[in-house]
Design goal:
By secondary structure, this protein is α+β, with helices and mostly antiparallel strands. It has 3 helices and 6 strands.
């Protein structure tokens, strides 16, 4: 039996939510890939810095909130100590995890599972608020660890 092709209805629901709530700070970017990925890009202001973030929707059960905390923060000189610090943060929080890219950039990812029917844009907004609150508390500590 052929697998049913899922449609990305989450993006439509999220787009309606941001329009209805006059959240005009998102830019919609269609990736035109097999997963029908649509990213809603924006920025977060933290400690006087503007850092990029995106809400990634596609035709899977996952919606990802991804924040680029910093570029190339992990270097040979701080790798062991910094990764231990990041692992401590990861053990402390349930709704998101920090991920280090191959180039040493640090991302904070939240994975929100849902079906198209059960997708709730308000939950995305609430989790995003939790992320912003967390970064307003931890960002300076993360940067301190990265640059010591």
């Amino acid at each position: 039996m052929a697998e049913e092709k899922r449609e990305n209805l989450k993006a439509k629901k999220f787009e309606k939510y941001i329009t209805d709530n006059k959240m005009n700070f998102f830019v919609k970017k269609e990736m035109k890939d097999e997963a029908e990925t649509i990213v809603f890009q924006s920025n977060i202001k933290v400690e006087g810095q503007t850092i990029p973030m995106g809400i990634i929707t596609d035709n899977t059960i996952y919606t990802i909130i991804r924040v680029q905390v910093g570029s190339q923060l992990v270097k040979d000189s701080n790798k062991t100590r910094f990764l231990e610090y990041i692992n401590t943060l990861n053990r402390s929080y349930k709704v998101f995890k920090y991920v280090v890219a191959e180039d040493g950039s640090l991302f904070l990812d939240c994975c929100l599972p849902s079906t198209n029917d059960s997708f709730d844009p308000e939950i995305v907004r609430v989790v995003l608020d939790v992320v912003v609150d967390h970064l307003n508390t931890e960002y300076k500590n993360i940067m301190k660890e990265a640059w010591e």
